[in-house]
Design a protein that fits this description.
The longest helix has 30 residues. Helix content is about 35%, strand content about 15%. The N and C termini lie far apart (about 90 Å). The chain has a single domain, classed as Alkaline Phosphatase, subunit A. The chain is built from 11 helices and 17 strands. Strand 16 and strand 17 form a beta hairpin. With about 475 residues, the protein is an alpha/beta fold.
């Protein structure tokens, strides 16, 4: 008798292929259970409050809101706010130390700034002739000259500055602040981005990524010298009562789908974003109507001059959104990427923004808003002190300048040191993660406590790094 005679007909040994086929459903069930558990964890970690409702900070907030004036392309720090007399005296000579191992492009000898630096204000800050109007506010500025990043390319550098990561999809700085503090005005977004760039990281620079969709930056496009900025799809011919009924029906359907159980966090965020869009139809157009401003204010921002009108309008809108309770407003200008023709193009670009930026600082101070509004200026990296081509500079993430004003920072103050030519940071270094940690701290947020659980781990803007640079705090 053979052993096979004792095997029941329906329990014959399975081949490897049959075994995998029959177990496939089981593996799928395990994956489904894992996803359901993850969704439950996300729902548990999501605040039950309205996503945009104003929330209390972790500690005393020195600033209530931020205006980020982003100079896309990377303005040259050695031609703007980091005065280097040694670069002047050694211009035309080879760099006396090694250049970075990885460079975006080849550069030549040292190249002095085409602009003269002059002392400004009681603090005596040396500021380039590119910014004579901003220079008049030197006693309001806190210039950090030792910011550094990790990426030589625009795309990676922009994402690093805006999201804290140049390799993974992460929420943007504005989205994190929105998530942590909400908005002071339920009829406006907590995060607005004016004239955003759709290149070099694109929407990733104002995306909420895995945070609730309510914290996504609202892009306001346009803003040329004659073209008024606008919010896409804000206008509709559907009556308000009909829109309200549609949103209410959507919410009722969602609630009935879960039959009293906890609402799906992602769907809830989408519904709330619809509700916000509905409410914005009344308040956003009024906020963006700068014809309500006085003639003196419009002239202050340079709206009568075709050279300054475009960015002047964005700066004025930034003030209007900020004073109405928007937490984070970004105004983008560019393109500051002068690999050649530095003198003409940096000169033109600075001329477009200098007067409007000075006007914004003046306007905020006059209205009593500067003390609790943090103004941040800068680009994604600096530029080399060595020349590229006949008249240009290459990307330099190893050292660049950014300045802050208002919002609890020291006034007329400089922090950080670069080498005698401005190629590398040498003292009081401020990494991008440190900058983020410091900005959050000024808003009263502990960067280590502002977390969101996603994909099985807690994420934060500063990842696992970041040092708060308290030395620049006015009360330090």
């Amino acid at each position: 008798m053979n052993f096979s005679d004792f095997i029941h007909p329906i329990r014959r040994p399975l081949s490897r292929r049959q075994l995998l086929r029959r177990c496939g459903a089981g593996f799928g069930e395990l994956a489904l259970l894992s996803l359901l558990a993850e969704n439950a964890a996300v729902r548990a970690s999501t605040p039950s409050r309205s996503p945009l409702r104003s929330a209390s900070p972790h500690s005393r907030a020195r600033a209530k809101r931020i205006i980020f004036l982003f100079m896309h392309g990377g303005p040259s720090h050695v031609d703007t706010f980091d005065y280097k007399p040694k670069l002047i005296s050694d211009s035309g000579k080879p760099l006396p130390f090694a250049k970075p191992r990885i460079q975006f492009a080849k550069t030549g000898n040292l190249y002095k700034s085409p602009w003269e630096f002059r002392s400004h204000g009681q603090c005596g800050a040396k500021i380039s002739g590119l910014f004579p109007c901003v220079g008049q506010h030197a006693d309001e500025l806190c210039v950090i000259k030792s910011v550094h990043g990790t990426n030589e390319a625009h795309g990676g550098a922009l994402l690093k500055l805006h999201t804290g990561s140049d390799t993974f999809v992460r929420p943007s700085m504005g989205s994190w602040i929105s998530y942590g503090l909400g908005t002071e005005n339920q009829n406006l977004p907590s995060f607005v981005t004016l004239n955003p760039s759709y290149g070099h990281g694109g929407v990733g620079n104002w995306s909420s990524a895995f945070l609730p969709a309510s914290h996504q930056g609202t892009p306001i496009t346009g803003g040329g010298a004659t073209e008024p900025p606008s919010i896409a799809y804000l206008k509709t011919e559907t009556p308000g009562a009909t829109q309200r009924a549609q949103i209410d029906l959507l919410r009722d359907l969602e609630q009935s789908r879960f039959n009293g159980l906890e609402i799906d966090a992602a769907m809830e965020s989408r519904i709330k974003s619809f509700e916000l869009a509905f409410r914005m139809q009344n308040e956003a157009p009024e906020t963006m109507d700068i014809t309500r401003e006085s003639e003196a204010t419009r002239k202050l921002y340079g709206l009568e001059d075709p050279k300054t009108a475009a960015f002047g309008r964005l700066c004025l809108l930034a003030r209007r959104f900020s004073e109405r309770g928007v937490r984070f407003v970004q105004a983008t200008h560019g393109y500051w990427d002068q690999h050649e023709n530095l003198t003409d193009d940096h000169g033109r670009l600075a001329n477009e923004v200098d007067r409007p930026i000075a006007a914004l600082l003046t306007d905020l101070k006059t209205r009593g808003l500067l003390d609790d509004t943090l103004v941040l200026w800068g680009g994604e990296f600096g530029r080399t002190p060595t020349v590229q081509g006949k008249d240009g500079r290459d990307h330099n993430p190893h050292a660049f300048s950014m300045w802050l004003a208002g919002g609890g920072v020291k006034r007329g103050f400089s922090y950080g040191v670069t080498d005698e030519y401005g190629f590398y940071c040498v003292d009081q270094k401020v990494h991008v993660h440190d900058l983020h940690a410091t900005i959050l701290a000024l808003m009263g947020i502990d960067h280590e406590e502002l977390t969101f659980r996603h994909a099985g781990r807690d994420f934060r803007l500063t990842d696992v790094e970041g040092r708060v640079v308290r030395e620049i705090f006015a009360d330090a």
